[in-house]
Amino acid sequence: MNETFPPRGRLTPLSLPENREFFLRCYAETWRIAHGDLRGFREEYIYDMYLRRWEREPESLLGLWLGEELTALLALDSSRGEKLLWISFLHVAEPHRREGLGTALLEAAAREARRLGRQELQLCTARHNPALRFFERQGFRIVGRERGAVEPLLRLGKSLRPE
Length: 163
Fold this sequence. Notes:
By secondary structure, this protein is of the alpha+beta class. 32% of the residues lie in helices and 31% in strands. The protein has four helices and eight strands. An eight-stranded mixed β-sheet has the order 1-2-3-4-5-6-8-7, with helices on both faces. Strand 4 (69-77) and strand 5 (84-92) form a beta hairpin. The longest helix is centred in the N-terminal third of the chain and has 16 residues, at 20-35.
């Protein structure tokens, strides 16, 4: 998936090994925001899990570039069921939040889901994560709960209408 994000960005598959440090920094920041601290954050476990998926599906990890700056990440997982596309990670770097990039990433995920014939997007988040309100504004609703490393997580889903 290569997409242009007007007026100045592009979304491209990202090499996880080449961007390991950025990925882990973003993941740790997202974890801290969602859980309040890094308790339960296991860097090597998380990296290895994403690396195994990336080795099977190199286009499962996407980077959003604004000019030459990598500013956001989107990780997708198509193995969680035939009807849904799982968003396993979405992160926008702090200086670029509230610029519409998170919305654009969710729209890209929806386009990919439709391309794959999927009818729903799903993801998990901590109930204390400030991004929960963002996801709800984007049309996601609580569809269940999942076990998390620190606490139970909310499972959110959004039905997709055919374009």
